[in-house]
Amino acid sequence: MRPVGAHLSIAGGLEKAAERLVKMGGNCLQVFSASPKSWELPTINGRLSAAVRPAFIHAKYLINLASDKPDLLAKSIASLKYDLQVADLIGAKGVIVHLGSHLGRGFKAVFQQVTESIEIILKNSNTNSLLIIENSAGQQGKLCSLITEIKLIFDAVNSSRLAWCLDTCHAFNAGYSIGSASGNGSIQNDIVNETARTDLVGRLACLHVNDSRDDFASGHDRHANLGEGKIGLKNLAEYVNHPQLKHLPLIIETPGFDKSGPDKKNLDILKSLCV
Fold it and tell me: Residue limits of the Xylose isomerase-like TIM barrel domain (predicted)?
């Protein structure tokens, strides 16, 4: 079966999260190693079984490798180094991260700092875990809403331990079509075409499959349950079954039909889209 899973809480421990995922019918997992909204060190322990592989850690929301505040930059680098070590310990493939925001200064102004920070993180984390950049929706100066920005970072860092994660909601809200009937319907602006054009398909580690509460190219980042958003099931099905993407693990980060987070109903819908 294709790896299909969800982001779940580690409340009760890593093993409990894995058990909940299997009960939902999933076989790959994403977790936070600790609270995503504080700098506390990871408390996660244990090792994942082969039943929930691949697995990923999602980095803290506080991280900003483009920050002009030395303390925040240092904390961001240290947190990512630590999470990469934890990923290795628990059997996760890597750490998925939003690189942060240039806060109005522009991508070019922070490019060197960001790439040098990534090089430091990779050089000083004694592990094979991947650092996985996630595309953003373009809100508030967030980095990597443009696929070309991700390409520039890959070219500058040139490391086999650097990968990326493509989120459908973020791409749609950044102005990329997800499926032929979504967005502006322009084949030039199709997310898969742009990924192929920039030669980044082979660097994808996983796909986040989320619908969008907001309209195309809104610049917002608000996930919707599958089929309840502006992207729609037809477009999501076309996307997850695209020949260049259908080998990749799929992870939902949906709000849940009962508003308690990714649930079995969303996961069942996602599985039904896969052919």
Answer: 57-268
Which burial class, exposed, middle or buried, applies to 86 when counting CB atoms under 10 A from its CB (0-12, 13-18, 19+)? buried
Per-residue pLDDT tens over the stretch 109-146:
999 999 999 999 999 998 999 999 999 998 889 999 99
117 neighbors 81 (Cβ within 8 angstroms): no
Predicted structure pTM score: 0.97
CA distance 95 to 249: 14
Is residue 57 exposed (0-12), middle (13-18) or buried (19+ Cβ within 10 Å)? buried
- The answer to whether the beta carbons of residues 145 and 169 sit under 8 Å apart is no
Q: What is the dihedral of CA 228, 230, 236, 237, to 10 degrees?
A: 70
In 3D space, the residue among 73, 52, 55, 74 whose CA is nearest the CA of residue 64 turns out to be 73
12: CATH: 3.20.20.150
Cβ contacts of residue 242 below 8 Å, gap of 6+?
192
Cite the annotated binding site for Zn(2+) by residue number: 58, 98, 134, 167, 170, 208, 221, 223, 253
Residue span of the structural domain in which 185 resides: 4-273
What contacts 45, CB < 8 A, 6 or more positions away?
13, 14, 89, 90
| Residues of each annotated binding site | 58, 98, 134, 167, 170, 208, 221, 223, 253
The count of domains in the chain is: 1
Alpha carbon distance 99, 35 (integer Å): 17
Question: Residues 6 or more apart from 230 whose CB is under 8 A from it?
Answer: 172, 182, 211, 212, 213, 214, 215, 216, 224
Flag the least confident range among 97-101, 138-142, 153-157.
Answer: 138-142
